[in-house]
Amino acid sequence: MTSYMDYTSPTTQFTADVNCNTLFKKDDCNYINVLGIKQLNTLENTSLLDIFLSKSNVVEPHYHQNAAELVYCISGAAVVSLINPFTNELLHFPITPGQVANVPQGWWHYEIATVDCTHLLAIFDAPTPEVILGSDILSKTPANVLAHTYCLNEAMVKETLAPVKPRTFIGPPADCCEPVKAAAENMQAANMAPNMAPNMAPVMGASNMPPNMAPVMGTSNMPHYMPQPASQGFGYQPMSVHAYYGQPYVQQPYRQLPYAQGIPAYPNAATDNE
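Above: the chain sequence. Below: its structure as tokens.
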């Protein structure tokens, strides 16, 4: 990429304080800071969001139309969920400190903190991360269009979506009613499969153990494994296509063998000229 930045200009910026650039703040424990080319003009195709979450808070479902997103866990723990548009699967990736989950450009995704004091760094390959939020889609799409398209009761659609505020960013909202808050706090225990602790893979238990009740072994003893359907969905009933992945840093199986081509043998020019 060719840079046309005038590095001799007195306005050239080489440092910035991300703490001073807040994109959204729900409360003192849940907020997002941003760094892009508007905050640091020597950036090229790089930007980031510094994300702080308490348990059960969600970076709302959204997608970035201009950038891929690499989510790095600094502290705490979170689950990065995304829809793979090529397989139509909803996938969940738990991450803990030092681990990452990658979201390709334009893919629908969201992040849920599974413990308090979770700190995530979202890194983008664009100077400014553009975003389309689920709250904007729900609040700006006319209720009669949703009702007609999906054969729903328009009055109930209006009533259900009335509390949705555009640009929610972090949910549930601070003014969310108590019953909903309580449900959100219980979301992790109710929705995570019993043998799927963050960054751990399912292991084989006794033959008479019921499904999804196998114990979890340490990461160092973890076998190679295939993705398993999850009996959880963070507030919805999962379908059989939903998959839940651990991140034990073992090679994840590919859907097809990688393409490989041998290097052709070319004549040596120096030898031919002798």
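The CA atoms of residues 135 and 165 lie 6 Å apart.
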